[in-house]
Hints:
Blueprint lengths: L7 H16 L6 H8 L3 H7 L3 H20 L9 H17 L1 H5 L1 H7 L1 H27 L7 H25 L7 H11 L6 H16 L2
Helix pairs in contact: 1-2, 1-4, 2-3, 4-5, 4-8, 5-10, 7-8, 8-9, 9-10, 10-11
Amino acid sequence: MKKPKRRTPERILETALRLFNELGEPNVTTTGIADEMNISPGNLYYHYHNKEEIVDALFAEYEREIDALLTVRDTATREAEDIWFFLHVLFEIIWKYRFLYRDINDLLTRHRLVETHFQRILAHKQQTAIALCQGLVASDLLDATPEEVAALAVNITLVTTFWLSFEHARQPRREPDIGRGIYQVMSLAAPWLRGPARQLLQQLSRAYIQSH
């Protein structure tokens, strides 16, 4: 059974996302997107009147995906593997929409939606990091005070948000290693980790060193 053909608006967003990620959003035009798809600029304009509408649509998709991940409703006890899995999925979403992170300063000055909603996402990231750390504290895997947890959550938010830019500046011609990003974030908690959580960090460290 053949898969149904994707509708033109879906194809436009898929193509735009690929080009934004490869070339940078400021370097891509609606004409370039249309040419890549072998459709007329008028056909693209029928669905999206300008590039801003395309960026807003992609940002809405990103926002739905990341909000679903960041919705941690409690501070129940957690295992160290829970944090690793959370970070892995988070970095996968960041990589999928990497143009948002690499071009964020430029986008913030030109897109009101991105400006206001990205601030909310940063706050949500920080709240989720606090909840996850509090879960590790409840599991006796993290020995940190509330003040230390709050500071750690800020640092986790900082690294997860700007890690891609750092990696791109460090090695612009290579794709970043998600495992390195996860390790770097977990390393932030190293001074307070105990038991299985510290063992997991050591395992990640060995795996990273062996792969590089």
